Amino acid sequence: MLLQILQLFEERKTISLSDLSLHFNIDKSAMQGMLNELVKKGKISRKHLECETGCTGCGMCSLSDERDTYILNL
What we know:
Blueprint: H1 2-12, E1 14-16, H2 17-24, H3 28-40, E2 44-48, H4 64-67, E3 68-72
């Protein structure tokens, strides 16, 4: 599965946690675990995008998962 995730990163370069979960039809928490492994191995990096709605960034809104984005390390 990790190889399939990396292949998708090679195509798209940047992908949100929500998009990955939908693409592979996997629960977000399970996908998060796999992404953490790829981060540890130095294959990808996590980037948390700033909230564009003007909120305090508490992570409680429905958009919080969209801001958890991962980037392929070149």
